[in-house]
Every structure is written in C-alpha cells, then in structure tokens.
Specification:
CATH topology of the largest domain: Growth Hormone, Chain: A
CATH class of the largest domain: Mainly Alpha
Number of helices: 16
Structural class: mainly alpha
CATH superfamily of the largest domain: MFS general substrate transporter like domains
Helix content: over 70%
Distance between the termini: 120 Å
Number of strands: 0
Strand content: under 5%
CATH architecture of the largest domain: Up-down Bundle
Length: 473
C-alpha cells in the first residue's frame, strides 16, 4: 500500500512536472514568436521609413539600409579592437595606437588630392567602389580574427587596413548621395536619414558584438565578416543611377566656383596647383563651414583616443574607468541622435548661423571641462561633441547644396568628406601625444578649437573684404 501511494505520488509529480515543462515550453515559444513578430514589425517600420517620400524609388532607401549594415559591421569591428588593441599595457598601447593613427592619416593625406580625379575616372562604377570597401573590410576582418588568436604582429597593419577601408566607404558613399535625392529632398534630409540609420546600426552591432565577444574577440570579427559580405552584395545591387555622371564637371579644370569677376585662368597643373584650386575655388560660406566642421571632427577624434587612455590610467575617484567611458560614449550617441532630429527641425535656419553657434558651444564646453573636470563635464562634453558634430555636418551639407553648382557638387562633397576624415585622425594623434593630465589635454583641445573659430572668422572677413573690391577686368 505504501509503495502504491509512493508510486502514485511519484506519478503525480511527474505529471505535474510534465505539465509545468509543457507550459514553460509553450510560454517560451509564444515569447519567441512575440519577439520575432516585434522584430519583424520593427524592421518593417524601419524599412518603410527608409523608403518613404520617394526614397525607395530613387534608391536612397537602399543606401540608407546599406549604411545601417555598414555601421553594424563597424560596431562589431570596434568592439573587437577595443578588447585587443586597447587591452595591452598603456605605455605600449599609446605608442602603437599613435603609430596606428599616423599610418591611418598618411594614406588620406596622400590620397586626398587624388580622390576627386579618382572618383571622376571611376564615376561609372560607384556601386563597385562602395562594394569594394565592404569586400576589403570582410577579407581583412577574417584575417584579423586569425591574427588575434595567434597574437600575430600583423594585428596592427590589418586593423589599419580595416579602418582605412571604413573611411574610404564614407567618402564613396558621400559621393553617391546627391545622385539619389528624391524630388523635394535636400542633402540635409538625406543625410539626417542616413545618420539615424547609422545610430541604430551602431546600437545593434554593439550589442551583437558584445555577446559574440564573450566567446572570444575573434568571434565578433567573424560576425563583422558576415555583415560586410552582406553589405558587399547590397552595394552592388544599388540602382544604376548611382553611377550616373550626367552633367558633372571637374572642379579643378573649370574653376567654376571661383570669383565671377576674376579673369580666366588656365587649368591648374601639379599637386599644389590642384589643391590651391580646390580651396580658392570654394565659395566663402562653404569654406567657412568646412573649417568649422573640421574643428568638430578634431574634437571627436581627440575625445575618442584621449578618453580611452585617460580612463585606464586616471579613472575618476569611486568610478570605474570603463563605466565612465561607456557613459561618455552613450552621451555622444544621444547627442548625435538629437542632432539628427534637430537637423530636420532647423533645416530652414541659415546654415552659417548653425555653424557659428556650434563652434562656440564646442569651445565653451571644452573650456568648462578643462577647468571643472568631473564626470558631469565629461558627459556634457561627450553629449555636445555628438550633438555639434551631427548638426554642423548637416549644415555643411546644406551649404554645399545651396552654394555649389550642381555639376560639381558631387566632387566637392566627396573631397570634403576626405578632409573631415583626416581631421578626425589628427584629433586622435593630438590625443595620443599629450600627457594624460585632464586639465592639460582638454585645455589644449579647447585652444585648438579657439584657433578654428578664429580661422573661420578670418576667412569670412578676408573674403568679404576681397569681394568688396573686385579685381579689374
């Protein structure tokens, strides 16, 4: 009898456990389905937004989605590099990262004068040029995954190749955007939409890479490889109008942006002549906007590198350096997202006013951080760097669209993007070169931003004075 009762209770427990297990299993399946439906619905809404207002018909929606994929891959690559390059001892890391940044700047400094002519030569293959930047990143990510496992000395050169390919993508994408604008769309609208997709891509890529990195740094790199392969296919499938060059001219050969009262000049020859033609030929508002945006990129590059080492060596009392660094990055991301939203809201404001305010705010926040160094000023500086960096870039785009003739606008847009990439690297070099003393570091970058502000004012004054006294014809 006792055995029967025991057996009955055991059978009852098994049935209860089975029913509980079944309930849990059904709940898990339902939850998974709900998450899947939510993800699909979110993806559908995002895709609908990317392709709205005619962007789907012109191909701009496809470029927005492509940028999302690129940022997911870049986030995975960044997470992996943060766990490998920045994980070595600080003294060694500063020297190696400094060399890394100098080598990164070198290709752009050397290639910048030739980017325009290169795009001119291959303007019928922009889709393949964009696809090549993805394919290169895919190959190098796979190679880097193996180098990380074996601790190969090729880690830095291959990482350099990944970064250069990522920057090259920015230049080629920038040159393609003006060809895909729907009717009634401005570059500010288009770049705001692209930037918003980039923020979402970085968030998703960072989360996925963080999960993969728990298995090993090489796994986040293999994730980046898969993402970049997808991006390669999507780039090649962009619409044919990306390759269109109807009506385009070369800036240097025509000098169509130069002063209308200036007598005709022969086409510039040599590297120095081509560089001078590009600078002299830019309208005053465009040149002033470009200088201001260079200052914003200088601050972003400095903050990225300087903070990474400062928090390792001199964390704030009672706070983890990793935590503070994560909070500053989050604040910069929030500022970037807000800048995207404000860019759309302020699109009817004069870009010159937006740029002037942005430079002043950058200087003020950098000075405040140098004098009142704390976690709150760091968060404020990160937020301002993200906000100003996005707003001022959108204002530069609007200025180029307004003041540059359509048939050379794509050339100017691609060339300006190259200059901005170099500015970011210079900021990083400044950050790696300074002693890890907060008041010194942030004081120096504040001083450099003051020089940028003074340079933009001087350019405007000299150009205004020059235009007031036209040359005799």
């Amino acid at each position: 009898m006792t055995q029967e009762r025991t057996g009955g209770r055991g059978e009852g427990l098994r049935r209860t456990a089975a029913r509980a297990g079944g309930a849990v299993g059904r709940g898990t399946v339902r939850a998974a389905r709900a998450v899947g439906r939510g993800t699909q619905a979110g993806a559908a809404r995002a895709r609908a937004y990317a392709r709205s207002s005619g962007a789907g018909e012109t191909g701009l929606g496809g470029l927005v989605e492509l940028h999302f994929v690129s940022m997911v891959g870049d986030a995975a690559l960044t997470v992996s590099l943060a766990g490998t390059i920045f994980a070595i001892p600080t003294d060694r890391a500063r020297g190696q990262v400094g060399l890394f940044l100098v080598l990164t700047m070198a290709p752009f400094a050397l290639l910048a004068p030739f980017i325009g002519p290169l795009l001119d030569r291959f303007r019928h293959g922009r889709r393949w040029a964009i696809g090549t930047t993805f394919a290169a990143r895919a190959f190098l990510s796979w190679v880097l995954a193996g180098a990380v496992i074996t601790e190969s000395p090729w880690v830095f050169p291959v990482a350099l190749g990944c970064l250069v390919s990522s920057k090259a993508y920015g230049v080629t994408r920038a040159a393609a955007v003006p060809r895909l604008l729907p009717d009634g769309f401005t570059l500010v609208n288009a770049n705001s939409r692209i930037a918003l997709s980039g923020v979402a891509g970085m968030a998703l890529g960072g989360g996925l890479a963080g999960a993969f990195a728990k298995v090993g740094a090489d796994w986040s790199l293999r994730l980046a490889f898969v993402i970049y392969v997808v991006g390669t296919v999507l780039a090649i499938r962009l619409p044919a109008r990306v390759d269109s060059s109807a009506g385009e001219r070369n800036v240097e050969d025509t000098l169509v942006l130069a002063r209308p009262d200036h007598p005709p000049v022969p086409p510039p020859r040599g590297l120095t002549g081509r560089l001078r033609a590009r600078v002299v030929g830019l309208p005053t508002p465009v040149l002033v906007a470009l200088v201001g945006t260079m200052g914003a990129r200088l601050l972003t590059g400095f903050l990225t590198v300087f903070m990474a080492f400062l928090m390792r060596v001199h964390p704030l009392p009672g706070l983890s350096g990793t935590l503070v660094l994560g909070l500053v990055v989050g604040a910069a991301g929030a500022g970037n997202a807000l800048g995207t939203a404000l860019g759309n809201a302020l699109k009817r404001r004069r870009p010159e006013a937006i740029i002037a305010v942005c430079i002043v705010v950058d200087v003020a926040m950098a000075v405040t951080t140098a004098v009142l160094y704390s976690v709150w000023t760091l968060l404020g500086l990160g937020f301002v760097a993200g906000l100003v960096g996005q707003l001022i870039k959108l204002a530069l785009d609007a200025t180029i669209q307004r003041d540059v003739e359509e048939d050379v606008r794509t050339r100017v847009f691609g060339w300006s993007e190259t200059v901005l990439q170099i500015s970011w690297v210079i900021g990083g070099v400044v950050g790696i070169s300074l002693p890890l003393v907060p008041h010194v570091g942030f004081g120096v970058i504040a001083g450099l931003l003051v020089l940028v502000l003074a340079a933009s004012i001087r350019i405007r004054v000299l150009r205004t004075r020059r235009d007031a006294h036209p040359l005799p014809t």
